[in-house]
Specification:
Layout (H helix, E strand, L loop, with lengths): L1 H24 L3 H13 L11 H19 L2 H6 L1 H26 L5 H10 L6 H8 L4 H30 L5 H30 L5 H21 L4 H19 L2 H28 L1 H11 L4 H51 L1 H10 L18 H10 L1 H12 L8 H4 L6 H14 L4 H23 L4 H9 L5 H8 L8 H30 L6 H20 L11 H28 L4 H21 L2 H5 L1
Helix pairs in contact: 1-2, 1-12, 2-12, 3-10, 3-11, 3-12, 3-22, 5-6, 5-8, 5-14, 6-8, 7-8, 7-23, 8-9, 8-11, 9-10, 9-11, 10-11, 10-12, 13-23, 14-16, 14-20, 14-21, 14-23, 16-17, 17-20, 21-23, 22-23, 24-25, 25-26
């Protein structure tokens, strides 16, 4: 027992030392821990170490991904969901299949099923690069994409691994079966994650003690992941969804004291768990090499295959990222073309007289809707006039700009369509309601319009070019999840020890090569950094928003120095802070400010509220 405690203490101190050293010299601490682990594993008095993969996959990853998803700005996740989904789902699937074909070609007798399983193992990237990229001050879009990708790609890879192993076991690998298994795993996990995230906030909002509240939060990732895994779904996706729901809603539901306690304690947990993962990853190398030497002729063939696989992962990622960025740029240009029209439409809806005329006009006849005229760039007024004339068309056009499905998206083409029977009557009534402006309709559409305009400014203000794309490609390094996933392969897997070694070498080589040179790559490529002038202008707008929200709260007129007057002023200050927080959260939902600026302002308000609460009641001190 004492030996285990000593090892645990040494491990924690090593993690602390690596983190301190890394911060001082600009080296990512996981890289240091992997190197230390590898060196220690080859010491003659250190026995071969083998970690049960379930401890990593089921015990360590859910809280790590939950913590990261709580911290992920929901606004950035929504905006970059297309890129995140492409990298964390489509790219992982494509990489798994292509790498599987490569492994089936170079490893005799492995078979396509086991080859795709190995491809799925080495496909997911690690979040190590995010910290390096953040410190370099690159575009927040790059950081958001890398953070979002690291939340979901582990789950995608593990679901594919499970499906590929099952297919290999019965010697029938079909795309349809794997696809159905993947969809089932994701859908069930999303449902469980959403339910746990909502229930988590409902329960914790009623707990007054901050310490107890944080203790409950430690159970949330497992409350989401364990039932999902029991039903054959992805526990990691469930933990991520629960974290996204919690992070999005917590500022409106939980007190600042509770959120501060959560943040501090979860940062500590995250540091220790992440450090343990990378330290044990290095410590396992000697045991893996020893097993390959005992079971096979040597490690050199595995080294060659791993080097080729690592090169292939980089090439596949580059080939995927290039058209992805081109697609994102085209969408951004299409959105920008509609901005003048949408701005004119927003001005009409915000004008009381124009809004009143829209309310009084009633629905247009089915044949009275004109076509959208001209070019939206050169003739925005004419476009705005047509959109303002019919809410169905306005909703459809805004949905098209936003790139999301909309119930009214086909209304413009289907208005006046002939359908018989009760279904046709219902459809026509629905279209009639869609084509009538109401107070609620204007308010709801105005909110949506603000968000779309903010999204347009976000995408056009920080375009992703080849420099940013190069960083996204080079930051796609593999990590400890690859090693844990490889060790989860069944014992009867053909050439299992060699496959585990290949996965380890790909992960370690990727970490040391790409992670060790990412800082240099940033200096060479020089991706676009944030604009200081734009940041100052944004902060000025935010301060104006806070001032207006604070001035809307009535202040007590009394200037007496009595306990009653003190309590009145204290209550007024708290109401002012809460009004300012609500204004910031509304602005966050609309996307009118960047996530980093909003996070800083919210932290300041939380600190002010905690400080005021700690002052207490003067009657307690004098009584």
């Amino acid at each position: 027992m004492e030996e285990v405690l000593v090892i645990g203490v040494i491990a924690v101190l090593t993690i602390a030392a690596a983190t301190t050293f890394g911060q001082r010299f600009g080296v990512a601490s996981p890289l240091i821990l992997v190197v230390v682990g590898i060196l220690v594993s080859f010491l003659p008095f250190v026995p071969a170490l083998t970690i049960q993969p379930e401890w990593i996959i089921a015990g360590v990853l859910p809280p790590l991904l939950y913590s990261a998803s709580v911290s992920m700005p929901s606004m950035n996740f929504r905006r970059e969901f297309g890129a995140i989904g492409g990298l964390s789902v489509v790219l992982v699937i494509v990489s798994s299949v292509l790498l599987g074909m490569f492994f089936a070609w170079v490893i005799p007798g492995l078979g396509l099923g086991w080859s795709v399983a190995l491809g799925a193992i080495v496909s997911p990237t690690d979040a190590v690069a995010t910290g390096i990229v953040k410190r370099a001050g690159v575009s927040p879009r790059v950081v958001a994409i890398l953070e979002g990708e690291s939340l979901l790609n582990d789950a995608t890879a593990l679901v594919l691994l499970r499906a590929a192993v099952a297919a290999a076991a019965v010697a029938t690998f079909t795309i349809g079966a794997v696809t159905l298994s993947f969809l089932y795993s994701v859908v069930v996990a999303v449902v469980f994650g959403w339910l746990v995230g909502r229930l988590n906030l409902i329960v914790r909002a009623r707990v007054k003690d901050a310490t107890v509240n944080t203790v409950i939060s430690f159970t949330v990732p497992f409350l989401a992941s364990i039932p999902a895994e029991a039903l054959g779904a992805s526990g990691l996706v469930a933990a991520v969804v629960a974290g996204l729901i919690t992070g999005s809603r917590a500022p409106r539901v939980l007190s600042p004291e509770h959120r501060l306690s959560d943040s501090q304690n979860w940062r500590t947990v995250e540091l220790v768990l992440e450090g343990i993962i990378f330290l044990t990853m290095g410590l396992e190398l000697f045991g893996i090499v020893q097993k390959v030497q005992n079971d096979h002729s040597g490690v050199l063939p595995a080294v060659g295959i791993a080097a080729a696989a690592l090169l292939l992962t980089i090439l596949i990622r580059a080939a995927f990222v290039a058209p992805l960025l081109a697609l994102l740029a085209r969408r951004s240009r299409r959105r920008a073309r509609m901005r003048p029209t949408l701005t004119k439409l927003q001005e009409r809806l915000q004008d009381p007289e124009a809004a009143q005329r829209l309310l009084e006009q009633g629905p247009l006849p089915p044949d009275a809707l004109p076509e959208l005229p001209g070019d939206p760039v050169t003739d925005p007024d004419a476009h705005a006039e047509v959109l303002a004339a019919d809410p169905a068309v306005a909703h459809a056009e805004v949905a098209k700009v936003a790139g999301v499905p909309d119930a009214a998206a086909s209304a413009r083409d289907s208005i006046g369509a002939t359908q018989s029977g009760w279904r046709g009557r219902l459809v026509r009534r629905q279209r009639e309601r869609q084509r009538t402006w109401t107070v609620e309709n204007i308010a709801r559409f105005g909110t949506r319009l603000r968000r779309v305009l903010a999204d347009i400014d976000y995408f056009t203000g920080a375009p992703l070019g080849w420099r940013e794309g190069s960083i996204v490609v080079w930051a796609g390094m593999r990590g400890a999840v690859t090693v844990a996933a490889a060790q989860s392969l069944p014992q009867d897997t053909p050439g299992r020890s060699v496959l585990v070694l290949i996965a380890f070498l790909v992960a370690a080589g990727s970490l040391l090569l790409q992670g060790g040179t990412l800082g240099l790559a940033l200096k060479i490529v020089k991706p676009t950094a944030s604009d200081p002038a734009a940041e100052r202008e944004e902060r000025a707008r935010l301060l104006e928003l806070l001032r207006e929200a604070g001035e809307a709260v009535p202040q007590p007129e009394t200037r007496e120095r009595t306990p009653e007057a003190f309590n009145q002023h204290k209550t007024a200050r708290l109401q002012r802070i809460r009004a300012q927080r609500d204004a910031l959260l509304d602005a966050r939902d609309d996307g009118t400010f960047s996530a980093d600026v909003l996070a800083g302002a919210l932290s300041n308000l939380d600190a002010d509220e905690i400080s005021i609460d700690l002052k207490g009641d003067p009657t307690e001190a004098t009584g």
